[in-house]
Amino acid sequence: MSNVSRIIISRTDSIGDVMLTLPLCGWLKKHIPGCTVIFLGRSYTRGIAEACQHIDAFVDWDALKHETPAAQVEELAAHSADCIIHVFPRKEILWLAKRAGIPMRIASGHRIHALTKCNKLVFFSRKNSDLHESQLNFKLLKPLGIPDSIDLDEVPAYYGFHPTDSTSPAVASALANGRGRRLVVLHPLSKGSAVDWPVERYRELSASLPAEEFALFITGTSDEGERIRARGGIEGAHVYDTTGKFDLGELISFIDQCDVLVAASTGPLHIAAALGKHAVGLYSPKRPIHPGRWSPVGQHAFVICAPNHPKKGGALSISADEVRQAILRA
Questions:
Q1: Widest CA span of the chain, in angstroms?
Q2: Residue 1 forms part of a structural domain
Q3: Which of 294, 272, 286, 271 is nearest to 316 (CA)?
């Protein structure tokens, strides 16, 4: 559409969701040459947006939401957007975009608030679809008159995702520990976004990988590090605890310099896949959290799916040997 040149992508949820929205930005750049893509997201996902070559500006929702309503409208209007795509429709942002006078406001027609706040509605079901999350995002492009579907194997070409940090002291120090060995990132927890693999399985896995060949790095927030240690921790002469030591930009840079990452369906897994790393994802078969919807998408991404969804409070029934074999094949 020639009359659309400045587009806001609104996705104010988690790192993994934002990662799977990046190809949408690359697709816009391809089909609307010269367009400006502005990303409206949470402060903790800024590092993702800054590492994407297809995103020209970032609007921090966590800062904007604390402004007065008038200031919010003024700030959003100042971006002079022709269009906003509510990939993750948040009621207050739907209202704000309309008040800011953005001419084209696109959202899924299945949210009741979108019916009165948006003028371009697209009707599709995420929950019942067989499409991957990254493909579902493309459905919102239909009102722009550009192709709104993509084959899953094409998606990685549109990430445009590259580390922005030069190696920080924290990253350099961690990498020095693994010099001369294959570097494997283990990200045990997922902040509730997925069914986790038990910490004891990570311990089994680490014990099964020879210390002379592998260096294993445990990643996560400081709080996640405490929770991992409370569950017995993951120890060994070749295991290094980096929890709480990296900000998001540093984590991206660190993953980019490692060989393999193992995690459940969570943000770092999608970061690794987008960087072309060997991303080993551990999944439940239950819809809608199954790999058909949320698998890592990348040239070297690989999924191990448990035979059954665990009972409440349970964990994924995937053996340490299955994951070990995936690492050895990587």
A1: 62
A2: no
A3: 286
Highest mean pLDDT among 103-112, 122-131, 192-201, 240-249: 240-249
Cα–Cα distances in angstroms (integers) from residue 316 to residues 198, 281, 292, in the given order: 7, 12, 17
pLDDT tens digits for range 103-160: 999 999 987 889 999 999 999 888 888 999 999 999 999 999 999 999 999 999 999 9
The residue behind tokens 């050895």 is: 328
Say if residue 269 is in the same domain as residue 306.
yes
The pTM assigned to this predicted structure is 0.96
DSSP string, 221-277: -HHHHHHHHHTT----TTEEE-TTS--HHHHHHHHHTSSEEEEESSHHHHHHHHTT-
On whether both 60 and 94 belong to a single domain, the answer is yes
Q: For residue 133, what is the enclosing H or E element?
A: helix 133-138
Residues 301 and 201 in one domain: yes
Structural domain span for residue 66: 6-158
